[in-house]
Every structure is written in structure tokens, then in C-alpha cells.
Design a protein that fits this description.
Blueprint lengths: L2 H13 L3 H41 L5 H5 L1 H7 L11 H17 L2 H9 L5 H10 L9 H8 L6 H10 L6 H5 L3 E3 L5 E3 L7 H32 L2 H12 L6 H12 L4 H8 L13 H24 L5 H8 L4 H12 L1 H16 L3 H6 L7 H10 L4 H26 L8
Antiparallel strand pairs: 1-2
Helix pairs in contact: 2-21, 4-5, 6-7, 11-12, 11-15, 11-18, 13-15, 15-18, 16-17, 18-21, 20-21
Length: 419
């Protein structure tokens, strides 16, 4: 081959496109096109889901109400060594000026509400102090505050004010676990009469696990029936599983409210059949909560198991029976293990959905059936304590992730396949 021919061949080779590089470039273009199509959805999720939840979680460790209302006092209390000594006279003067400015600026109410979460009666103390100000001419600020209310002479009052004046605080997270920072600065449990949140978490997880178990017991046979029937009959019966999704959750819960009351349909049937002589307590207790939540979440369990069962060939069981196995043993040893992906997916899905239920426990449950979602709503709507609501939400998210990790270890939910 001459030098001219070799040079021409090298030029052709240099202009030849590597097919693998072209394939990778095409894949990148397709991925970019798919990403651009998903950008509006990602923006929508970020604005309506991620950002609000992120703000709520930040509120669990950040509070500005007191720091914005009494900035001068907060700065002086940050240098105060703490009890048993009272703050300096300058701190009393700063508090008097800050309270008057907060009243004029409209920030006193939120600060008083925040302080009332530390000590009941703190709100009335601040409002009483502001009402009896300004200080008389020639009177010292410390003397005036002690004249208005003797609680200003207690170091504990100033300690709580100083803690609330911090912009970053662990108090909400501690309160959500029924703990607090004591006078000595050590973390200690609250009084047993005030410990409500840990019990609410335990109760929430117990109710959710019970609902998941009941849904599995009731939904597994239904899913098996739908998967083994002919297609026409299965599709007809599937309508009864899907219809509840077309009805409002509030309507379904209210219907159970009517059915389960002492003079409702269920009690009337029980009395007429002779099973009972008096109405049974089916609502405003744990029984009503379990019935209502099971009714709402049962379709999720059925659909999760049905999606797996319809892909299992009946030839496996027939082969086991033909080899001498009893039909019940073949079902337990052959069929049930094949449906474990559906069982795991359905149980976890029902459990997680049940953790955040609010309407059903509120309408059908009693005083001892409050779930953590009800306490979050209480703090946000009535108490206006968004920090504590955020702390409860943080723990709920953390505990749910912990359950997912444990469940994934035991069942391997990330390897489950539907169908």
C-alpha cells in the first residue's frame, strides 16, 4: 500500500463514527428529554410538598417569636449565669422597654403564646405586666416589675424566658419525647401526668400494625378468589373492590358512624338474632377505629396481593398434589411463599398509610385512641404551636424510616415485584 493510500485510509477511519459512542449519545438525549418532560412535575412537587414539609421540620428546632419580641433582653440573658441569682437591673430595664415595643409592634401575642408552652400562666404574666406599664416616673424597672407581679423575682421565670429567647432550640424535640431541660440544665422526663406523646406514638404504631394484620387476614382470601376465578367473574367482582376509591373518606367514615352507634344497624341485627341482649360498644373505642380503618385500607391489601397472585401459575400446586402432597400442604408450602412479595407490599403499604390517619380515629375513636396525627393537628390548629407539631412530624418520619429499614431487612421490600 502506497503512502497516499494509507493516508486516505486513515482519514476514512478518523471520519468513521464509533457505533457505541453514537448509542450512548442517543441515550443521553433520551434521558435529557425525559428529564425535561418531568421538570414541571418536579417543580410542582417541590413547591407543594417538599418545601412546606421542609419548613415544618425546620420549625421543630427553630423559633423566633420570643427573640424578635424581646431582642435586648435576649442578648442580656445570653450572658446571664443563671439561677440562683437574678439578672442585672439592666436586664429588667431592657425587658420593660422590649415589652412596650413588642406591644406596639404586635409581636407580644405570639411571644406570650410561645412562653406559655414552657410554663402555663406565662402568657397572663406578660399581658398583665404590659397592661400595668409604663413605669411610674422615678421608679426603677426591677422595682416596678416586682410590684406588678412577684414572679419576676423568681430566677426560674428568667431562666425560662432566656431558654425561649434562643432561636435554635431542642425543646420541641424533647417535648415530643416527654422530656425537658430541668433547672440544672440536665434533660429529665416530664411529670407522668404530662407525658402523652410517647404513649401516642406507641398507640399509633399498635393501631397501624393491627389494621395491617386484619387487612391481611381478610384481604388474602379475597385476592386469592379474584386471582383464581375466570376473567369475566374476576373483573365483575373487582368492581366491588375499586368502588370504595370513588367515595370520599369522610363519607365512608360517617357511614360507619351511623352503622356502629348503639341504635344502629349492627346492634339491631345482633339483638334481633339473639346474640346479645343489649347494644354493644362498637364506637368511641378501639373497636370502632379498627373497623373503620380496615374498611378504608382493605382494598390496598387486596390489590397488592392480587397483582402478585395473578402471575402465579396453578401448575405449581397441581404438580405438588400429583407428587403426593396434600392440597392444604401444597398451598402452604408452594403457593403462600410465592405470594410473599404481595403480602410484604400490602402489609407495608397499609401500615404506612394507617400511621397518618386522622378523620377515622377522630370520629370513631375515644379518648384513649388518639393517634399522633390528631396531636399534630391539635398543635397546629388550636395550640398554634407549630414547633411542637414539626417535632412530632420529625419523629413520625424518622420512626417510619426505621420501620422501613427493619422491614426491608426482614422481607426485602426493595426486591419485591408486583406481578
Amino acid at each position: 500500500m502506497s503512502a497516499r493510500e494509507a493516508t486516505a485510509l486513515d482519514g476514512v477511519r478518523s471520519r468513521t463514527v464509533d457505533p457505541r459512542a453514537g448509542y450512548r449519545a442517543a441515550q443521553r438525549r433520551e434521558s435529557m428529554r425525559a428529564f425535561l418532560l418531568a421538570v414541571p412535575l418536579l417543580i410542582f412537587l417541590a413547591m407543594t410538598f417538599i418545601v412546606p414539609i421542609g419548613k415544618l421540620l425546620i420549625m421543630s428546632v427553630k423559633t423566633d417569636e420570643v427573640a424578635n419580641a424581646v431582642p435586648k433582653t435576649a442578648a442580656l440573658l445570653a450572658r446571664w449565669p443563671g439561677p440562683p441569682a437574678l439578672p442585672s437591673r439592666q436586664t429588667f430595664e431592657a425587658l420593660a422597654a422590649d415589652l412596650q415595643a413588642a406591644q406596639d409592634g404586635g409581636t407580644l401575642a405570639s411571644a406570650a403564646r410561645r412562653l406559655n408552652t414552657y410554663e402555663p400562666g406565662f402568657r397572663s404574666l406578660l399581658l398583665k405586666t404590659v397592661r400595668q406599664m409604663p413605669i411610674a416616673e422615678g421608679e426603677q424597672a426591677d422595682e416596678a416589675l416586682l410590684r406588678i407581679d412577684r414572679r419576676w423575682g423568681e430566677p426560674e421565670t428568667w431562666r425560662l424566658l432566656g431558654r425561649a429567647a434562643h432561636r435554635w432550640t431542642p425543646d420541641f424535640l424533647l417535648t415530643a419525647m416527654d422530656h425537658r431541660v430541668g433547672v440544672s440544665g440536665a434533660i429529665e422526663p416530664v411529670e407522668p401526668s404530662q407525658a402523652i406523646y410517647v404513649g401516642a406514638f406507641v398507640r399509633t404504631f399498635a393501631i397501624s400494625a393491627s389494621v395491617a394484620l386484619i387487612c391481611l387476614v381478610l384481604g388474602y382470601p379475597v385476592a386469592f378468589l379474584l386471582a383464581t376465578l375466570p376473567a369475566r367473574q374476576s373483573n365483575f367482582l373487582m368492581i366491588f373492590v375499586i368502588v370504595p376509591f370513588w367515595t370520599s373518606l369522610l363519607v365512608r367514615t360517617t357511614a360507619w358512624y351511623v352503622l356502629l352507634q348503639p341504635n344502629g344497624v349492627f346492634n339491631a341485627l345482633l339483638i334481633r338474632s339473639g346474640l346479645t341482649t343489649a347494644p354493644m360498644a362498637l364506637m368511641f373505642n378501639r373497636t370502632g377505629v379498627l373497623i373503620g380503618m380496615t374498611h378504608v385500607l382493605l382494598p390496598f391489601m387486596i390489590l397488592a396481593n392480587y397483582a402478585v397472585m395473578r402471575g402465579i401459575s396453578p401448575a405449581y400446586q397441581r404438580a405438588a398434589v400429583s407428587l403426593g402432597a396434600h392440597p392444604a400442604l401444597a398451598f402452604l408450602r408452594i403457593y403462600v411463599p410465592l405470594t410473599l412479595p404481595g403480602i410484604g407490599t400490602g402489609a407495608f403499604l397499609v401500615f404506612v398509610l394507617a400511621l397518618g390517619y386522622y378523620i377515622t380515629p377522630a370520629l370513631l375513636g375515644g379518648a384513649g385512641d388518639e393517634m399522633i396525627s390528631q396531636l399534630v393537628a391539635l398543635q397546629m390548629d388550636r395550640q398554634l404551636n407549630w414547633g411542637l407539631a414539626g417535632a412530632l412530624s420529625v419523629y413520625l418520619v424518622v420512626f417510619t424510616l426505621a420501620v422501613y429499614v427493619v422491614f426491608n431487612r426482614l422481607v426485602g421490600i426493595d426486591r419485591l415485584r408486583l406481578g
